[in-house]
Structure of 4-hydroxy-3-methylbut-2-enyl diphosphate reductase:
Amino acid sequence: MTVTTSDPTTATSTKRVLLAAPRGYCAGVDRAVVAVEKALDTYGAPVYVRKEIVHNKHVVETLRERGAIFVNDTDEVPEGARLVFSAHGVSPAVRQAAAARSLDTIDATCPLVTKVHKEAVRFAKDDYDILLIGHTGHEEVEGTAGEAPDHVQVVNSPDEVDQVVVRDPAKVVWISQTTLSVDETMETVRRLREKFPSLQDPPSDDICYATQNRQVAVKKLAPEADVVIVVGSANSSNSVRLVEVALQAGAGSAYRVDRAAEIDDAWLEGATTVGVTSGASVPEILVQDVIKHLAAHGFGEVEEVRTATEDLMFSLPRELARGLKAAGQEEKRPRREQRTSLPVTPV
């Protein structure tokens, strides 16, 4: 099996796989997963985790096997136990509930989500109506909205803009969930600005770099792909968005799977080019299983379509870093680089 790096618009091989890069783990997911692993290594099982640490079945199952216990809320955790907040963040009310139970908390919230929380707090302090573009019920949206519940209203899509009502059209700002479709978010903003010409922007992009990079890579390969397979769980917002982006960018069809075993071989009938990518909470081993499955069906040539190189790395949560130091352990860890198990030959 050969892996090359190429531009899909010039490739002419048949029965090929276009493998998106970047794909898979982002810095925030890596930090959160490592936080649970190191907490288990340092303190032993059980370590409690509020909600799923990241939205990926394989990751959650693997950590559960090691002794992590996933709960829906703080009242399920024994008083005085150790609790990790997921990468999606929590509201001040959740933090207060944890403190009331004397829980030893480790905050694994992605720093890019924390940035959005701080924006909500700042704009609420200045008495703005805050329009949070995101998906109602998603943990990240619940956490962000919880920072200023009297000022925040969630806008799920462009179609909801007509229902938005604010106190003062001159004091309105938008912020967003970090894992949305860039194009759909900008369309929502466009419609909001038509309705509220004084609408203010957040100080910087809220949609995270990893979400944007993965969407750009899919857009590049999608026009050449008969089928795009996105590896990611159903509750992973950024994975679901990748399916939508692939279809909008011209893919013949696009599907999401948690693992290779979920691929319906009927999807591959008549296809000569299959695009493959994965959401930001997906370990590379799951992508490689998909590549092997496709190879067994004649898609033996794998061409990497790279649109960016990511080297961002976040430090571990400070509570955990202090614990590691007290235990005489190093905070440093090897970065989980996105790489195939096959040789990559630039062309």
The longest strand covers residues 16-21. The chain has ten helices and 14 strands. The mean pLDDT is 93. Residues 27-110+312-338 form a domain with the Rossmann fold fold (CATH 3.40.50.11270).
